[in-house]
Amino acid sequence: MSQENVDAMRKVYEAMARGDFWAAGEVLDPEIEWSWPSSMSGLTGVKTYHGVEGVEAATRDVFKAWEMFRQEAEEFIEEGDDVVVVVRMYGRLKGSSQEIEATSGHVWTFRDARVIRFRAFDTPTEALEAAGLKE
Fold first, then answer.
1. Taking phi first (over 0 means left), then psi (-120 to 50 degrees means alpha), and beta for anything else, what does residue 88 get?
2. DSSP character for 47?
3. CA–CA distances in Å: residue 22 to residues 11, 39, 56, 95, 109
4. Cα angle 17-18-22, degrees, rounded to a multiple of 5
5. pLDDT, tens digit only, all 135 positions of the chain
6. How many Å apart are CA 68 and CA 120, to the nearest integer?
């Protein structure tokens, strides 16, 4: 089932690269747990969100801070029920003229072809470690 999970995440990130940030909704479990890295807590004010409505709130909370934001998946790594995605992010915060480019890591945990947990990390290494892998 893990290759199917990777394929599902490829489709999600392809859609997000086109600006469709709600594409993940098709694979989310209704009771999903969603968490941004602690570095984002200044933008979101909340560390963990629950359920699909929580994911929508998490996304809105983050996008409120950005004038421009896009991300592209660079690599997909499967490990058991987890899919680790190495992500390149580009953005510009509201009120700033400086563009930001960073690489981070996301861990998507699946059960029965549905994502039950999403965790974002500041670095790919942190994401790999969270999934039980070493870079």
1. beta
2. S
3. 12, 23, 8, 25, 18
4. 85
5. 579 999 999 999 998 888 787 788 889 999 999 998 877 766 666 678 899 888 888 878 777 888 888 889 999 999 999 999 999 999 898 899 999 999 999 999 999 999 999 999 999 999 999 999 875
6. 19
2-130 has which fold?
Answer: Nuclear Transport Factor 2; Chain: A, (3.10.450)
Reported residue count of the chain is 135
Contact yes or no for 103/74 (Cβ under 8 A): yes
Q: Where are the domains of the chain?
A: 2-130
The pTM (predicted TM-score) of the whole model is 0.89
